[in-house]
Specification:
By secondary structure, this protein is an alpha/beta fold. The chain is built from eight helices and 14 strands.
């Protein structure tokens, strides 16, 4: 159909036929611009943003953003990454083992979130001696390439060692009182973490990892652990049946779990998630501990017992394998553990716990 244009002189419409060569040129120009600037395969993305500040573009400016391309093996639907271990819970939470994730893909996704990760450690009394090794190995293996805030709870701030930290990583020393018994130090963590979640963590970090200080990082521990709420399988019970788990079995305790219930036994030395979820967990555990004290009860494994009760009722969205909590001296290195990531430091518990 010919293109009809008005005749500006006579007021009557006239028909003008576009010559084939002109029409072809127009089409080539449109194809060129469409392919160069509108195609999703283009290596350059032109995006509009307000307030560019450039002369003549005060209200709207153009920003060039280069898109990176990642090359990695294609996941195979019919070829599972691991056949020797459980990699998914019945409530569809992933269980994190070596060879079940791609670090590069995860790092890119979390960099897009621009997330900051906080990690809490309690260096109370003589446990401050473990802090230097903890920090040095964390700098080598923990959340490398991401922003990290180390929150060190201690009654001995003068003994906190100076450890050089990488770019975007900082240490915050929080002075807290000591307790007479190591059991109380352990249980009081729940109160202190929940309190500081309200005071500052909710404003300063996106995720919070709660870790024991008498450990060291031995291999990569990165953003693959992060989720709304994660727990870590206890290395001594990941093979055991629920009847053999050392849950609190007395009904008078808030941590009570009957013998016919339970999913896994989680270690109290490594858990975390989003700050809001960690706040809910630690606040609930603290309230349960207070209720037990009022009734003259102390759970068999203190805050760890209450943690297990909470994670039974509030299923974690990610579960870490025993790679993330191991003791090679006690348990050796079985073939199923392809990597040992966060491991116990040899120590004399009796000598150090109450001093």
């Amino acid at each position: 159909m010919p293109l009809t244009l008005p005749d500006t002189l006579g007021g009557k419409p006239k028909c003008y036929l576009l010559r084939p060569v002109t029409f072809l040129l127009i089409m080539l120009v449109l194809v060129f611009f469409g392919a160069g600037f509108l195609s999703p395969r283009s290596p350059v993305l032109w995006s509009r943003r307000a307030g560019a500040g450039e002369a003549g573009r005060e209200s709207v400016g153009l920003q060039v953003v280069k898109l990176s391309r990642m090359v990695y093996p294609q996941p195979k639907v019919l070829k599972p990454s691991r056949k020797d271990v459980l990699v998914l819970t019945p409530w569809l939470a992933p269980i994190i083992w070596e060879a079940t994730f791609n670090t590069d893909i995860l790092n890119e996704q979390f960099r897009l979130q621009n997330a900051t990760i906080g990690i809490t450690v309690f260096a109370i009394k003589k446990y401050v001696v473990f802090l230097k090794l903890f920090l040095e190995t964390a700098e080598q293996h923990f959340m490398v390439g991401h922003r990290v805030n180390y929150y060190v709870f201690t009654d001995r701030p003068a003994d906190v060692p100076h450890v050089p930290l990488g770019e975007g990583r900082q240490m915050v020393v929080l002075e807290v009182p000591a307790s007479a018994r190591w059991q109380d130090v352990s249980m009081n963590r729940m109160e202190m973490i929940s309190s500081f979640c309200e005071q500052r963590f909710l404003r300063e970090v996106d995720f919070l990892v709660c870790a024991d200080v008498d450990m060291k990082f031995r291999d990569h521990v990165g953003v693959e652990i992060l989720s709304q709420l994660f727990g870590t399988l206890h290395p001594g019970y990941y093979r055991a049946s629920r009847e053999a788990f050392p849950y609190e079995r007395r009904p008078q305790s808030q941590a009570h779990i009957p013998r016919d219930q339970g999913d896994f036994y989680y270690m109290g030395a490594f858990f975390g998630g989003s700050v809001s979820e960690v706040y809910r967990l630690t606040k609930a555990c603290h309230q349960a501990i207070v209720a037990d004290r009022a009734n003259g009860v102390e759970a068999v494994w203190h805050d760890e017992s209450h943690l297990n009760r909470y994670l039974l009722d509030h299923k974690p969205t990610k579960v870490l394998s025993p790679e993330y909590m191991w003791d090679e001296k006690l348990l050796g290195w079985p073939a199923i553990m392809r990597k040992l990531r966060y491991v116990a430091v040899p120590k004399n518990h009796r000598e150090i716990r109450n001093r």
